[in-house]
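Ligand-bound model needed. nicotinamide-adenine-dinucleotide.
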Amino acid sequence: MNILVTGGAGFIGINLIKYLIKKKHKILIVDKITYASNHDELKILIKNKNVILKKIDVCDYNKIYKAICDFKPKKIMHLAAESHVDRSIKSSKIFLKTNIIGTYTMLFAALNYYNNLPLKNNSSFLFHHISTDEVYGDLSLKDRSFSEENKYFPSSPYSASKASADHFVRAWFRTYGLPVIITNCSNNYGPYQHKEKIIPLIINNALQGKKVPIYGNGKQIRDWLHVSDHVRALYDVLFKGVIGSTYNIGANNELENIKLVTLICGYLDKKVKDKPKNIKSFSELITFVKDRPGHDVRYAINSRKIKKELKWKPKISFKIGLSLTIDWYLDQLCGKKL
Ligand code: NAD
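Prediction:
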């Protein structure tokens, strides 16, 4: 089946493309190839005869529409986004452009394509919008985890832009009848993540003997899901999800940031023989820094719906997933030097 994936060169995108290749689909990656793309892995992926790459900005209607018409996808998975909260606080405009106008452009092009499909070909068409739990805002320690019924209270320019995009996707379903599904997922971790994100950042800094920064008091709670479990959930939604629905995706792995950093440092202590000269334990590098403005306190996701309706469940425990992930980054960063 032909599947068009926007943002296929990013962290989740690369993991998703690998999965889709295994499932024998024909894939068109549409990506602007920003700083966040994984160039090395992309070069390998496009050697596969079932993968095509088009370097296109999702805000460019003409190119997007042509790419869709030429490729004739049955499914569009829209992942392309600016995704880093800190960057969105420093310069929000590109987040509004890519995440809102880009999603609007994708919807507009997808609808025009869908409306021109012969009836017999349009029954399995789907626009799958990949979003985040951050649209719901944050929770206090006492609150129940986010369900699909929670109202949107985004805190950062990033989450506000994703929330806005989600609203457009729903509007295109309700007003124009475009077959859509939205998924809202918790924090992903795993291989191929950009080094500005917390887990690769900690590992990278620690190995170089640099400070391992942690915002505020480090008590912020994130709900972690291994990227391979997310990719399987996306695939299940793509083929079994109910049109017009939203599915929350998470694995009930709530953890304070300080605990995450401490776990990683402890694991590195065991694994890395040659520590940087200035330290005996990597935890000595943990440094509390001024908190991020508007920092969400707690995310926690209730994924009962996808578990019940689509029989999806996460397979990778956080303990195993984290050690596999650290091993992967160690291999990338130090290779045989360990
Ligand atoms: P990422 O930043 O690693 O990758 C994003 C990709 O989108 C990059 O390859 C980038 O080049 C591309 N892109 C950016 N602007 C573009 C544009 N204008 N046109 C075309 N391509 C463009 O992001 P990620 O972590 O892989 O996240 C993918 C999606 O999943 C995003 O929509 C994000 O909001 C969502 N999400 C991520 C997480 C997470 O923990 N990483 C959790 C939930 C949801």
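The radius of gyration is 20 Å.
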